Amino acid sequence: MRPMMPPPAGMRGPMHIGGGPRGYLTEEERETRPRVTKKLLLRILGYLKPYKWQFIAVFVAILISAVLGLFPSIITGKIVDAIISDSREIKILAQLVVLAFVVLAAAQIISVLEQYINSWISQKIIYDMRNQMYDHLQHMPHSFFTNEKQGDIITRMNSDINGVSSVISVMLTSTLSNVLTVATCVFYLFYTDWRLAIVGLLVLPLLILPTKAVGKKRWELVSKSQAKQDELNQQVDETLSVSGSMLVKLFTKEKTEYEKFRKINNEATEITIKEQRAGSWFHVFLGMFIQIAPLMIYFVGGFLIIGGLDSGLTVGDISVVVALVNRLYQPVRQLLDLQVDFVRSLALFTRIFEYFDRKCDIENPENPVKPPLNDSTVEFCDVHFSYETGHEILKGISFFVPSGKMYAIVGTSGAGKSTIIGMIPRLYDVSEGCVKVAGTDVRDFDLAYLRTNIGIVTQDTYLFNGTILDNLLYAKPSATREEIENACKVANIYDFIMGLPAKFDTVVGNRGLKLSGGEKQRVSIARVVLKNPKILILDEATSSLDSISESLIQSALNAVMQNRTSIVIAHRLSTVIAADKIMVVENGEITETGTHSQLIETSEKYRKLYETQFKKVIDYESAKTQKI
């Protein structure tokens, strides 16, 4: 006879052999494990400090739960003694059963309360960290987003910060619960009988160590299975996306890609089968071996009772020891994995803190200024700039744009044109020299004030996945309907919008993909018109337009640039000819300056650009006109 209470809800007994990837560090994790410092630990605790009283409540709940967790085992022993006693009073037995039920109910209620508070704390910390991370990233310089992978940024914002929840439950509450459970169980084991306690504790490693051995084998197979699953996901992502599926069809690679997928899928399936079968026979023998632990306890206890060596020891006491040893299995096993959990938790926080520690080089000065911009001149004074040390992009750029004039920048791809205009709204800061607006260094401006007065239309037009109206109001949330319609008319997009079934409430799709390139450009130009900036920057704003779309907005651009200081990067000759002055940029330097007619006569470099970029467009459009 082996009377014993089952382990409490949520506790896994020794027959439940686990041990997945959680209990082992990968080679990469071993090599890159973070260094534990007092500063790092205090920084982590800083996020917990606002919720210290809630943590105290959790600690009290865990302590009460650990103590109550002893009672089922203790009551089991009492019930056994009541059954085999000479008196055999049913009343005592009933009282013990009722007491066991009350204790179990109380333990469950406290457990729910603990989980509720714990969940509230973890979600609040995630809320705080996510807000802090988003605010921090919003103020990072533009170079951060050009250098970092978008997937890494999203991982920090979502997966890493969400992982903080498990850190709190595993590293804090779960560890604390395991420690208190082990402490209370060991205390009562020795309180019941020190000899049986020693026997029970000696056999405990024999139950845990084989389990970890099987877990390690399964972990290796799970890791391989995950790697193959990643290959499958990559294959699906590449070949079943819009662009990927089109490429497969155009090169008739359906059969090739299917065979590739089938091969990876077969390998993934084989590894998964091995993983599920891993340790099956070992589990059988281990299940049999597990029975040895209680048998040894019963043997020693029975020897003491039958041999008359301890008259105070009862069968109920032996049952209590067996139950408590079983109760120790899970918390001890989890505490053995504490190092792994600790390393991964620190690594998680280290990844998050690595982003928080990225300095934002472009910030408001201590005493920002907001000079009047009625005279909105733009001046570059011997500007040098490098994205990375040793590779200079701009090499002594100097020019002056009078207020209300339109200057054009031309040059081959990679010459530094976009970098030049990025200096004006401080998307980048100069390495040497300075950029001035209205005679004031842009680094002295209030950053929001500076950018509010600069409008930019880029060649890579970006629209949010909302309605046309949402995207327009992004420039000026307080805009009236009349202002919105006038801006759209200036951009020659009003008639198109009114022809849509939902009109301004039309959803443009992700990145505006439901609109054509020309339509997106005109919406973005309307957005800039609504902003009404003092300085206008066009970064090849008509490069993705066909001739009809360009003709629709060319007059609009002229109207928008009227009485505004404008700097234009253009490949369209019509825009360049209209410029008050053209600057030829080559290898990060301004090599020629003048009007179109002047440069055609005096600049060989400009004539080459004209022949390669502009004249082809003229000849093509002339040919189309002749056909018509």
Describe this structure in words.
Helix 4 packs antiparallel against helix 5 (90-138), helix 7 packs antiparallel against helix 8 and helix 7 runs antiparallel to helix 14. The protein has 628 residues and is of the alpha/beta class. It contains 24 helices and ten strands. The longest helix has 49 residues, at 90-138. Helices cover 62% and strands 10% of the residues. Strands 6-7-8-3-9-10 form a six-stranded mixed sheet. Strands 2-1-4-5 form a four-stranded antiparallel sheet, with no helix packed on it. It has three domains: 37-193 and 313-356, Up-down Bundle (ABC transporter transmembrane region fold), CATH 1.20.1560.10; 362-453 and 534-628, Rossmann fold, CATH 3.40.50.300; 462-532, Rossmann fold, CATH 3.40.50. The chain starts with 26 loop residues before the first helix and ends with a helix.
Features:
10% strand, single chain, disordered N terminus, ABC transporter transmembrane region fold, four-stranded antiparallel sheet, elongated, 24 helices, Rossmann fold, 628 residues, six-stranded mixed sheet, 3 domains, alpha/beta
